[in-house]
């Protein structure tokens, strides 16, 4: 089940950058104790709203989904580092809920010509296409079963896109294997690539070290405060 939650959060809406996330306390009891990280998918700076789009996978997201409209939600943010926006011709590649932060990015990059490549298992998973319509210059779709767009994975279609257009930045968010594939192709073409991790987190602010990942320089990175957005070569062995 996918849910879209809009929160009145003027201070967060004022400063949030694409790629940043909020850390949401999902209930009043001790279980679950930890907040849940969710990407900021949309921002309305004038009204002071932010929107998150999330999949209900466990107790935390189920509790969040059960809240009635108008409920108060304890929400920390914006947290983490966002995407580098220095681009004239961006390509966004997303799979599954990884498309949530890319939606904010696509809107923030307008009116630059944004191309989106999105993948899902079936066409039902690609309702995202309608959400991105109107924001992107072009949208390409792959499904594992061929029920929408090209049959296969995003990285099967990507070489063709890179052959035909000169992108100057690639941004990817989704399953790790997808991001590795995207980053390899980007490296081969000499295009700078940023990826965003969606790992498990505890504190969300760099204090507990529960979210660390290995950097390619041998030093560890905290996904919550050094990321969740990284240059691909900083954290992926390509
Ligand atoms: C920076 C960041 C941004 C995120 N943005 C979004 C978003 O915009 N939309 C969205 O739907 N989700 C997003 N996530 C993932 C989201 O935080 C988890 O789905 C959520 O915490 C699950 O909480 P839960 O209590 O419902 O599930 P739990 O009960 O904690 O877990 C249920 C199942 O999901 C698995 N799981 C939990 N968290 C993750 C994870 N991060 N990656 C893979 N598997 C996991 C568990 O291993 C378990 O199998 C993001 C994560 C991060 C770190
Ligand atoms: S979640 Fe605690 S350091 Fe990242």
Automatic annotation (TrEMBL):
Signal peptide: none annotated. [2Fe-2S] cluster binds at residues 203, 208, 211, 224. Residues 1-85 form the FAD-binding FR-type domain. Keywords: 2Fe-2S, Electron transport, FAD, Flavoprotein, Iron, Iron-sulfur, Metal-binding, Pyrimidine biosynthesis, Transport. It comes from the Bacteria. Binds 1 [2Fe-2S] cluster per subunit. Binds 1 FAD per subunit. Pfam families: DHODB_Fe-S_bind, FAD_binding_6. Its cofactor is [2Fe-2S] cluster; FAD. InterPro entries: Cbr1-like_FAD-bd_dom, Cyt_c3_hydrogenase_gsu, Dihydroorotate_DH_ele_sf, Dihydroorotate_DH_Fe-S-bd, Dihydroorotate_DHASE_ETsu, FAD-bd_FR_type, FNR_nucleotide-bd, PyrK_electron_transfer. Pathway: Pyrimidine metabolism; UMP biosynthesis via de novo pathway; orotate from (S)-dihydroorotate (NAD(+) route): step 1/1. FAD binds at residues 36-39, 53-55, 60-61. Belongs to the PyrK family. Responsible for channeling the electrons from the oxidation of dihydroorotate from the FMN redox center in the PyrD type B subunit to the ultimate electron acceptor NAD(+). Heterotetramer of 2 PyrK and 2 PyrD type B subunits. This is Dihydroorotate dehydrogenase B (NAD(+)), electron transfer subunit. It comes from Anaeroselena agilis. The gene is pyrK.
């Amino acid at each position: 089940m996918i849910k879209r939650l809009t929160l009145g959060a003027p201070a967060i809406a004022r400063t949030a950058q694409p790629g940043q996330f909020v850390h949401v306390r999902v209930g009043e009891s001790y279980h679950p104790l930890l907040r849940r990280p969710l990407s900021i998918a949309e921002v309305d700076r004038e009204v002071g709203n932010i929107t998150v789009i999330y999949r209900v996978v466990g107790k935390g997201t189920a509790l969040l989904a059960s809240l009635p409209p108008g409920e108060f939600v304890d929400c920390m943010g914006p947290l983490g580092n966002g995407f580098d926006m220095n681009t004239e011709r961006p390509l966004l590649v997303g799979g599954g809920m990884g498309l949530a932060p890319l939606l904010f990015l696509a809107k923030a990059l307008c009116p630059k010509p944004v191309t989106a490549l999105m993948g899902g298992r079936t066409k039902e998973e690609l309702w995202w296409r309608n959400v991105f319509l109107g924001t992107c210059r072009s949208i390409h779709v792959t499904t594992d079963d061929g029920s929408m767009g090209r049959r296969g994975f995003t990285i099967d279609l990507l070489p063709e896109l890179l052959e035909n257009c000169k992108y100057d930045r690639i941004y990817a968010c989704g399953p790790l294997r997808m991001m590795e594939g995207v980053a390899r192709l980007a490296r081969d073409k000499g295009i700078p690539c940023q990826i965003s991790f969606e790992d498990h987190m505890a504190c969300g602010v760099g204090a507990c070290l529960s979210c660390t990942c290995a950097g390619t320089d041998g030093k560890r990175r905290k996904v919550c405060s050094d990321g969740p957005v990284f240059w691909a070569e900083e954290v992926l062995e390509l």
